[in-house]
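Q: Here's a chain of 76 amino acids. Please give me its 3D structure as tokens.
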Amino acid sequence: MGFLAGGLVGLLAGFIGGRLTERTRRARADYRAGRGAVPGLRKAAWGHLEKAVRVWAVVGIVLAAVVVYLVKYPTS
């Protein structure tokens, strides 16, 4: 009976250990594949941020010009 229990414990430990090892290998492979894409993605993110800052700057300037115009030339 002890032999069977020891075998089952060893089988379970091997199964869990093998699963964890394979997950680690897959995660490492995904990390290495993704690491190569990071510089391009970082450049794209900065490009999008730059576009957004430019748009908000133009919107702010236009709104400031409208406020100055309305203060300088009131309608009533």
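Q: Can you summarize the key feature?
A: The two ends are 100 Å apart (CA to CA).
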